[in-house]
Amino acid sequence: MSSGFYLSKELWLGIKSRGLKSSMLAISVISVFLCLLTIFLLSWNMLGMSKDNILYAIFKEKPDKNLPGQLEDLISQEDQVTQIFHASCESVKNCNIPEEVRRALPSQTSPFTYFRIAVKSSPDIPVVEAALKSKTLDQYLIFVNPEKGSLRQALAQSIAAQNVFLLFILIVFAFTVVTVIWVFRVLANEWAPELETLYLSGIALQSLRLPFFFTGILFGCSAGLVTLLLFFLLQLGSFSPDSILRQWLPDLAQPDFLANLFWRLLGLGLLTGTIIGGLSAFGVKLKSN
Amino acid sequence: MPPIVIQVSELKYTTPEGQRVLEDVHLRLDRGELVCVVGETSSGKSLLLKLLSKEIEPQRGQILVDDRNVTRIRKDRLLELRRRMGIVPQNPKLMQGKSIYEALIFKLRVMGYDKSETERKALDTLEALKLASLREMPVEDLSPANQRLFHVALAACHEPGLLLIDEPFGDLEFKDAQNVVAGLKHFHELKRCAILIVTRERSHAQQTGGRLVLLQNGVIVSLPPTSAAPTPTTASTVSDPKQKKGGVR
Hints:
- The complex is a heterodimer.
- Chain A is of the alpha+beta class.
- Chain A has helices at about 1-15, 20-45, 65-75, 100-105, 125-135, 150-155, 160-190, 190-200, 205-235, 245-250, 255-285; strands spanning about 55-60, 80-90, 110-120, 140-145.
- Chain A has two domains: about 1-50 and about 155-280, no CATH class; about 55-150, 2-Layer Sandwich (Alpha-Beta Plaits).
- Chain A is elongated, with a radius of gyration of 26 Å.
- In chain B, β7 (about 160-165), α6 (about 175-190) and β8 (about 195-200) form a beta-alpha-beta unit.
- In chain B, α3 (about 100-110) crosses α4 (about 115-130) and α5 (about 145-155) runs parallel beside α6.
- The interface between A and B is medium-sized, with 23 and 32 residues.
């Protein structure tokens, strides 16, 4: 194992002196990054992996004592609803609600009462909203969907958009596979003299494959960090409530979004890199002339 | 340690296309001995080395290296055996971006030797091959002759008991080939490890001072020793030698 680490270090240190283009390595990291990004978008948007999928329902007027309980019973009958939180706020300013909800409030409503309705997934939000409206709950409540206009809800509502998105993901995935195969072939070619010498000296093939494995992991982790950087920049650009970015990806507004993302992306990068490196290493076959 | 390093008996190899390359090869190499197998192009010389290092499997015959039956050796034992060999392929790929000393250090460190042992072995090998003065020179800047000697150094730096060298003199100018001969002779005199060289350059092979055998028509034929030094005009490749068919010894 230590031989494998030493070999990996030496081969990597020797890359620059071979004139191996750093742009080529950058391309490979970017391609894996694109792959991660699309996997992320796929899971986040199409599979609705958002941390909170919330529909807000605000009372138009101050309700009677029993009305919130009755409406809560009606709302909880919907299959997609997982949790209902009922609260009142003395003033809009001191209330812990998203900016989108705050802006939807009628100007004179203060104090006000609202339901925070958690649903299973983001695409369920408009479904639940429509179902509650059909029960004529909208005569008491104003429904506010903070994710209205978001990418994931747009995708959830259009088969064509889903297909385009899937096609995009397939293209990016194919691009990643081709690029990574190409990069690993160049690497195998660059390292061929060393690997051939060691192979003929009785070094086990597993040790000779380790540098490829580590390279894959390095690509994956680098790509994870690049993706994280991208989301950091996106978050910087989405501070304004009017930001289109925030409308498309409402998760950006969550304060712990990057912290949650860090481990997910690093893990995803590590996993992707390990698979890429493992497959590439397995593909390494050595023989002398 | 057994006195015989290589013992090949009744070795036969036919290509997948059906061409019989080795018919009935018998070969013996003793510890510390230098043997040159000369033969024409495509006579099976390189194939013989690949069979000895088990890069290729023979159809029939027995190959004993250090008393181990190479044809039946297990994978883990093969790695161990290869560590006791030094193999120089015919056209080894050239390591770039390293000095010859660094290249040797690299290989020895990957093989697991500690720093001081690595340095000692590398310097010893370079001295033995008359490359010590060039130790800091990048591999790609070496002369053709020194590149050949560098590849021998790379194969021999872990001090194996057996060195297999494929065509060390091929495609070299006469002077360069003579330098390679001198380097190999010096190495053999100092290290006394068993060396098997395969080449088509008979005249240079004679200069090494080793025992000469001819690989022709799929069999090994011993050649009479000769002391005549080749000159640029007399240096020759293999052609119709006086034959004494049979085993080497």
